[in-house]
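Figure 2 data, in text form.
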Amino acid sequence: MLPTASDLLFFSFALLLLCQVSDAKRDLKSACSTCKRITENFDKGFERTAKQNFGGGNTAWEERKLSKYETSEIRLMEIIEGLCDSSSFECNQMLEEHEEHFETWWFKRKTKHPDLHKWFCIETISVCCPKGTFGPDCNACLGGSERPCHGNGACDGDGTRGGNGKCSCDKGYKGEFCLDCIDGYFNAVRNDTFSLCTECDASCKTCTGATNQDCDECKEGWEEDDQESCIDVDECAKGSSTCKEDQYCLNTEGSYSCKDCDKVCSGCTGAGPDKCQSCASGYQDTEGTCTDIDECSQPELACTKEHQECVNTKGSFSCICSIGYEELDGECVETPQKGEDEATSSDSFMDVC
């Protein structure tokens, strides 16, 4: 049955509401992040101005008449000026909305409430929560506020008024409370509130301990031997590799790789010119190793045209014209001397005249 117009309208409304809730949670996290950055910058500014004074030249008179710089409004303003980058809209907006709270804390609350982040972000404008709690009411994260996710993951919204408190487990852990181990890990220690997941041996898909004898199941590329231990499968020895004719198989733990043969080889069993199955064209077997054939030193001439010289190269050779000769139409002809060129040009000129 096709959905009715009212069904589509309800679905659209539900989707819009879900997006708004998601955006609101992100905004709450962002607000806490902005507030935390402001208070951190305030602490840095407080340290930066710790040894400063009014800068008028007569500090003793100024502090006697204007109060101490240490607790002065001038110092407060100097700190506040450095809290936000000019490009940060969220930071400047929050600072503008709540600047009077900084004045209240500076002059009336600082002694009793020295932790500005706690007083301002958590207790006063209520955009953050204490560590280990989340959401509008600062509820404890899964696993408890002391050790969220039992110390094996991150609580969504931890320390903010957003999030849902669910755990994103660290590598090796899974489950709602991050107490279980994923495949490839085992519980070295486990009780109701603590879990230590340790990686299995590289040969194990699942295991109960740290060695290759503790595998419940071997990974692909390993197989069980007579002692029920997982050992590496040598794909190269079994001939199950997919290497090409100009490659050789190199066994690795749990797998294998295909490497190119040396260029002197035509097929090979390993790396180097001494592992060739046969030698490539231009090379010859010399006591089990493929070496270059020097075509230029063979009894039969490699370069047969007149005035040519043979030059040996790796796996081949080339024919070049001897000194005093140059190639012309595939033949080596004598290179004309400079005087001969001029005489020829002069004779040609006289013939025209």
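Caption note: The first helix runs from residue 5 to 48.
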